[in-house]
Write a structure and sequence with these properties.
- There is one protein chain.
- The chain is α/β, with parallel strands linked by helices.
- The protein has a domain of 187 residues: 3-Layer(bba) Sandwich (FAD/NAD(P)-binding domain).
- It contains 12 helices and 22 strands.
- It is globular and about 60 Å long.
- It starts with a helix and ends in an 8-residue tail after the last strand.
- The structure holds flavin-adenine dinucleotide.
- The site of flavin-adenine dinucleotide has 31 residues, from helix 3, helix 5, strand 12 and helix 10.
């Protein structure tokens, strides 16, 4: 895939936005009127239907829509991202538990002291990329090479993926052409003028033997340990979501329809071939066909839910709820993984104002000697934070900061199970065994 011509067009787009407030408003107005027209005349069929406008769906929808000869429908359950809580980088915590968060909750689990662990996931245009902490975090070399070996496909290897990382980045730190790219759609920079806590965290890591790197997304992702000021998806204090970087610039085009507040409830089939989707939109159920393909990018919880409620999953589970089996596929909903994390909160003697995305330093390390890749990571947060139940139980200082320590490669595996056949039935999320006990 050629990179220069793509990067040129990304630059052109960016110039369009950077013309100033008036230029930006003119484009936004064009987007509004185009999408108003496209969504008021929904078609019975599109070439591609992409379900979920999160980090994955946004990229897929945009790349498909680059071909003006195909029509793309992008469906999202949540609503607008044009809100201060999404756009202002320092307001990200206010989205947690709001109507832009699915606010999933795991089943109570004996391995975590009977607690029911909360799972935030974005429910808005941009999905997680509109509510997350905006830390730009590449996968480690070891992980990519592992994926390539189990998939028996060198396209997943670190060497291969590094080229893609370089192609898609628009890196605004110290030039490093071996590792970092410029001119791509993804604006990234080292956290500018970080809070003094950030360099202090990096220095503290160095003192205990974790080396300092120039940034976390180059050589550091080839090492077993490393600490750095974070790379962030923040520009002039504003969030750069994947939706805004990929989809929004194409929303004035006739071949990309973005339908928000629409819930995908089921896939439709002809035999075993997926022919489209059923959606719940404005209090009615609609069926929309896909001439070529349906892409399910509903996140790690709703993707298996919709598959299972459509009849793709473990047949005994589906039969339990009277769902007709289209395909027995026992892996659906299995092998659920997430990085268990622990908040350690310190109270300030003299409060320091948080900056940027409130999280500007990161370090990776190993839990034992002899590992060639990290199995632990820690992010710093410039505010005191913890889960709601812990905050109620232990309280939080009015001014403080947090180290958020996490397991990078948890051994714990959970699964997602249906509680019923209908879209209003929730999904049950449980972990079988935890690698550590948390309070
Ligand atoms: C609070 C928080 C902080 C995070 N911080 C970081 C960070 O700093 N750096 C980082 O790299 N990662 C971070 N992440 C993780 C990252 O955001 C996710 O890994 C990523 O967004 C997952 O992408 P996805 O496309 O798989 O799913 P999502 O981004 O979750 O997208 C799924 C989309 O599908 C929509 N959807 C779901 N069900 C339906 C349905 N039935 N019908 C229609 N639409 C539906 C959802 O509303 C959502 O928009 C964070 C996540 C959270 C929640």
């Amino acid at each position: 895939m050629n990179t220069n011509s793509e990067n040129k067009s990304f630059e052109d787009e960016r110039e369009n936005y950077q013309r100033g407030t008036d230029g930006r408003d003119i484009f936004a107005e064009r987007v509004r009127s185009n999408q108003c027209q496209l969504t008021s005349q929904l078609r019975h069929q599109y070439d591609f239907i992409v379900c979920g406008s999160g980090s994955s769906g946004s990229v897929v929808a945009r790349r498909l829509a680059e071909n003006p000869n195909v029509s793309v429908l992008l469906i999202e359950a949540g609503g607008t991202d044009d809100l201060p809580s999404v756009m202002e980088a320092n307001q990200w915590p206010t989205n947690l538990g709001s109507d832009r968060d699915w606010s999933f909750q795991g089943q109570p689990n004996q391995h975590v002291n009977g607690r029911s662990i909360p799972f935030s996931m974005g429910k808005t245009l941009g999905g997680g990329s509109s509510i997350n902490v905006m830390v730009w975090a590449r996968g480690h070399k070891h992980d990519w090479d592992f994926f390539a070996s189990v998939a028996n496909d060198s396209a997943w290897s670190y060497e291969s993926v590094l080229k893609i990382y370089r192609r898609l980045e628009d890196w605004h730190g110290v030039p490093d052409p071996m590792y970092r790219g410029t001119g791509g759609p993804v604006f990234v920079q080292p956290a500018p003028e970080p809070n003094p806590l950030a360099p202090a965290t990096v220095e503290a890591a160095r003192v205990v033997g974790i080396p300092t790197f120039e940034n976390p997304n180059g050589r550091m992702m080839e090492a077993a340990k490393g600490a750095s000021i974070s790379d962030v998806r923040v520009r002039n204090g504003k969030r750069e979501s994947i939706f805004r970087s990929y989809v929004f610039p194409y929303m004035d085009r006739p071949n990309l329809t973005v339908l928000s507040h629409a819930l995908v409830t089921r896939l439709t089939f002809q035999g075993k071939r997926v022919t489209g989707v059923e959606i719940s939109y404005r209090d009615a159920i609609y069926r929309i066909g896909a001439a070529i393909e349906v892409v399910l990018s509903l996140g790690a919880i709703h993707t298996p839910k919709v598959l299972m409620q459509s009849g793709i999953g473990d047949e005994s589970e589906l039969r339990r709820f009277g769902i007709p089996v289209v395909q027995h596929l026992p892996g659906v909903g299995q092998n659920f993984q997430d990085h268990v994390a622990f908040d350690c909160v310190w109270e300030y003697e003299t409060a320091l104002e948080p900056r940027n995305n409130l999280s500007e330093a990161i370090f990776f390390s190993t839990s034992q000697s002899g590992l060639d890749s990290p199995d632990l990571f820690v992010c710093q947060a410039e505010v005191p934070k913890t889960t709601v139940d812990n905050a109620v139980r232990f309280g939080l200082p009015s001014a403080g900061w947090t180290l958020f320590g996490a397991i990078a490669n948890p051994k714990s595996r959970g699964r997602l199970r249906l509680t019923g056949a209908n879209l209003s039935d929730s999904i049950s999320t449980s972990r079988r065994a935890a690698t550590a006990t948390c309070m």
